[in-house]
Design a protein that fits this description.
Elements: H1 10-76, H2 79-92, H3 94-102, H4 109-140, H5 147-150, H6 156-159, H7 163-175, H8 177-253, H9 264-292, H10 302-310, E1 318-324, H11 327-334, H12 336-353, E2 359-362, E3 367-372, H13 380-395, E4 406-412, H14 419-435, E5 441-443
Parallel strand pairs: 4-5
Antiparallel strand pairs: 1-3, 1-4, 2-3
């Protein structure tokens, strides 16, 4: 993905970031479902714990209800208590329902065994309760009573008891220490069942809390990673897209090439722009050069001269007006091609003699202007040396051209009132040179 100084591909980075964010978003969503499941399981465990505890209490309550009804029946002999007893035992069946509720799954087997033991003790206790109720029924002379009581066989000594003794005997049975010891076994079995239920509930809750904390941790990590990725994407976009664009805008406004950094896509655009920029600049420079320069000699043309003249600092400039002596003779005698070569040689010599910062202009057919820039304090002797060198170079014939002479007029910008006056005085000095015999130079007074 990274490409050294070429930058990075925003497209690839964004694709991968989107994929990663989608993955972590899916993880968060999946974790929320798992969190919901954990909460539901904890809630179900709590509800189950409540139901199991209620079932255990129901068995004890049912047993206590049977005890209360049989005791009241033995004391009062009221058939309603007997009927209530059998309604609970064979119709309501809260004890049996408690056993069924406890049989949830294998996890409740231990609690179920404890409750079943309590149920067995309660059933054993019913034999004593049936016996007591049979004694009361015999003492009261009841002939219509439930079959379980009818099936009870009274001992001979109890049958021989008078009615009030039978009732007293029945009361002793359901109020004896042995009876309450049996009731205590039922209570202990129920309590042991409740203890097992509490252990089971605690184990389930602990397991689910571990799962819940794990899912919460995964969710937090996924959210944190998402946040980091979002900030990373913001930083990446700012660093490799927004910042290069903002800088590019300033560079375009300043007419400069665009800095080639950022994402691969932006670098590609920057390179394309810079290529067009350089091409346009080169074309513009060539166009400007053609507009301001003489096509034959490469010197500034009249338009270039006018521009230079308008921007001159007179106090620091020397102007020289140069005219080729008898230039018409070259064209008429040797042809226009030779005349063109003469002009090109003149410019070539002038460029070699003068500095790069000096400006050479062709303002007419064979008329030239030289601006010596930043030369306000230059000594005449240096200019005279340059004039001698120019004449010496132009007289050489090794290039196949005949000797060339020029007439030159020179003026210091300080001696002119303005740019127009500067040229007039230099031009006047050049004509004085021609009158003096050509091939000479004259300083304007």
């Amino acid at each position: 993905m990274l490409k050294g100084r070429m930058g990075i591909s925003h497209r690839k980075v964004h694709i991968w970031l989107v994929i990663i964010i989608l993955i972590f978003s899916g993880t968060v969503v999946f974790s929320t479902f798992r969190l919901t499941g954990a909460f539901m399981r904890i809630n179900a465990a709590t509800k189950q714990d409540s139901e199991l505890q209620k079932a255990a209490h129901e068995l004890m309550n049912a047993s206590d209800h049977l005890t209360e009804q049989v005791q009241r029946f033995t004391i009062d002999g009221d058939r309603r208590f007997m009927e209530s007893y059998f309604t609970e035992a064979f119709e309501s069946k809260r004890r049996e329902e408690a056993i069924e509720k406890m049989a949830v799954d294998s996890r409740t087997d231990a609690a179920l065994q404890k409750l079943q033991a309590a149920m067995d003790s309660s059933v054993e206790l019913m034999d004593q309760e049936y016996y007591a109720m049979r004694l009361v029924a015999e003492a009261k002379g009841y002939v219509d009573y439930p079959d379980p009581i009818r099936q009870v066989q009274l001992r001979a000594d109890d049958l021989a008891l008078p009615a009030d003794e039978m009732i007293r005997r029945a009361t002793e049975i359901v109020l004896s220490d042995a009876y309450y010891e049996q009731k205590e076994r039922i209570r202990r079995g129920t309590q042991e069942c409740l203890d097992e239920v509490d252990k089971l509930s605690e184990s389930i809750e602990k397991t689910e809390m571990v799962s819940l904390n794990r899912e919460l941790f995964i969710t937090r990590v996924a959210i944190l990673i998402q946040a980091v990725l979002v900030f990373f994407m913001m930083w990446l976009t700012t660093r490799y897209s927004i910042s290069p664009v903002l800088k590019a805008v300033e560079e375009v406004r300043s007419d400069r090439p665009i800095s080639e950094y950022g994402s691969d896509e932006f670098i590609y655009l920057a390179k394309a722009y810079n290529k067009m920029y350089q091409k346009n600049k080169s074309n513009l420079e060539r166009l400007n050069f053609k507009v301001s320069h003489d096509e034959l000699t490469g010197a500034y043309n009249r338009a270039g001269y006018d521009f230079l003249l308008s921007t001159l600092d007179l106090d620091t400039t020397y102007m020289m007006v140069l005219d080729v002596d008898d230039f018409k003779r070259f064209n008429d005698t040797f042809g226009h091609e030779t005349g063109d070569r003469v002009l090109m040689k003149v410019v070539k010599v002038l460029k070699r003699v003068f500095r790069d910062e000096d400006r050479i202009c062709r303002i007419g057919g064979d008329e030239f202007v030289i601006f010596m820039m930043h030369s306000g304090s230059i000594h005449h002797s240096l200019i005279e040396a340059k004039m001698a060198l120019i004449h010496s170079e132009l007289e050489k014939t090794e290039d196949g051209l005949p000797p060339i002479s020029v007439s030159i007029g020179i003026i210091n910008g300080k001696d002119a009132s303005d740019a127009s006056n500067l040229f007039e005085k230099a031009d006047e000095a050049m004509y004085r040179s021609k009158k003096q015999g050509k091939g000479t130079y004259t300083f304007s007074e």
